[in-house]
Design goal:
single chain; 390 residues; alpha/beta; Rossmann fold; 2 domains; 14 helices; globular
Length: 390
């Protein structure tokens, strides 16, 4: 079985990945390696070279790099300063990769093409021209951005994989779902720590308003006011976007609360061992997302470390977290439909107060449902079924 795995996001190159939060990259690399271990011949299509043992076909980045050199910018500089220019150049690269994969399939060099990231809208109208099966995975809610929600329903008859049942709510009810496959981690990347300190709540991820980091701050302050004998810290780790697209969320809603007494900022944690210590020592990992999370990799990273999750009832979070692996708080809304921040923070405090989850059960849930082996085997089985039906 010869699989073309297409990951055309411009971040997907060795030069950029260590400096960004881009979980689809890690997932794609795990998938490629896992499929190869199962006996598939995998060709990974990426803008630039990545660290992988499978065949890696890359795009011609020379014109993009010439543009960067002429401006004396890095990729991330251009993205911050001129996002439209960046996206325009990126889509040229993405189109080249998708066309190459479809051509190889038509030439008999691939048996199936899997378009794996959020640039698949380029691949949709041309999928019918590919002689071999094409399957799609999308890593955002399907109705999250205008450019996606206006086009995806037009191609509902193509082969779609969801990463949670909750993610399917953004597509028409008669969408051709060929599988629901949860993400998975490698067994040795994250694990429980011995004797966790248990004195803080951890937030890990992008520091943007839809992720609700400000709610985590409000909840911890309120918790400490109500529980003076059990002071909890909040440690925040991840990337903020000050200076990017005029984003002021970090400067106005997060930074003023960083006091290094109760609220801490640990910066960007890219190292797996450091991530394990950060998540594994926490009493809970808080996931206060305000948008419909299609999955939320942090949920299973926490479970792998044996740490329960406290989250909001957004998207897939209640699907992944049970009463034995964490607690779910309800979002509250005002009469005009806006979020009632105070009431929602109080709901988070309530579930934090009720947290009695066993760490061993968190790890067991991870091992039963969310390992890379299970993710890769599910994809392998799906590919076989699609090829049998083709």
């Amino acid at each position: 079985m010869r699989i073309g795995l297409v990951v055309p996001h411009i971040f997907m190159q060795r030069e950029i990945l260590p400096h960004v939060i881009f979980s689809p990259a890690d997932l794609a690399l795990r998938l490629a390696g896992g499929l190869r271990a199962l006996g598939a011949e995998v060709t990974l299509f990426t803008p630039g070279p990545v660290d992988t043992d499978v065949v890696n076909i890359t795009a011609d980045m020379s014109y993009f790099e010439q543009e960067l050199a002429g401006r004396d910018d890095t990729y991330m500089d251009l993205l911050k300063k001129h996002p439209f220019t960046f996206v325009s150049l990126a889509r040229q690269v993405q189109s080249e990769l998708i066309a190459k994969a479809y051509q190889m399939a038509n030439d008999g060099e691939l048996d199936l093409v899997h378009i794996y990231t959020n640039e698949e809208d380029i691949a949709l109208p041309f999928a019918s021209l590919c002689a071999k099966p094409v399957v799609f995975t999308h890593h955002d809610p399907f109705n999250f951005l205008v450019k996606y929600k206006n086009v995806f329903p037009k191609y509902k008859s193509l082969n779609w994989i969801s990463m949670s049942l909750a993610q399917r709510q953004g597509m028409p009810p008669d969408t051709n779902w060929v599988a629901n496959i949860y993400h998975g981690l490698t067994d040795d990347s994250l694990a429980p720590v011995k004797n966790p300190t248990n004195d803080y709540v951890a937030y890990l991820g992008r520091i943007i308003e839809p992720k609700g980091v400000h709610l985590a701050i409000d909840a911890i302050k309120l918790y400490n006011a109500e529980h003076p004998s059990d002071t909890l810290k909040l440690r925040i780790a991840g990337k903020h976007y000050a200076g990017h697209k005029k984003d002021t969320y970090w400067q106005t809603q997060i930074l003023p609360h960083i006091d290094d007494t109760i609220i801490f900022y640990d910066g960007f944690i890219g190292d797996s061992a450091k991530k394990r210590e950060f998540l594994g020592n926490a009493r809970a990992v808080i996931v206060p997302s305000l948008f419909d999370e299609p999955f939320g990799l942090i949920n299973i990273e926490a479970l792998a470390c044996g740490t329960p999750v406290v989250g909001l009832d957004s998207g897939a979070i209640p699907e992944l977290i049970t009463d034995r692996t964490g607690k779910i708080a309800k979002k509250q809304f005002n009469s005009d439909g806006s979020l009632d921040v105070s009431a929602t923070a109080k709901n988070l405090v309530s579930v934090l107060s009720e947290l009695d989850t066993l760490r061993t059960e968190c790890r067991q849930a991870y091992e039963q449902h969310y390992t890379a082996d299970k993710m890769c085997q599910a994809h392998y089985n799906l590919y076989l079924r699609l090829l049998d039906n083709h």
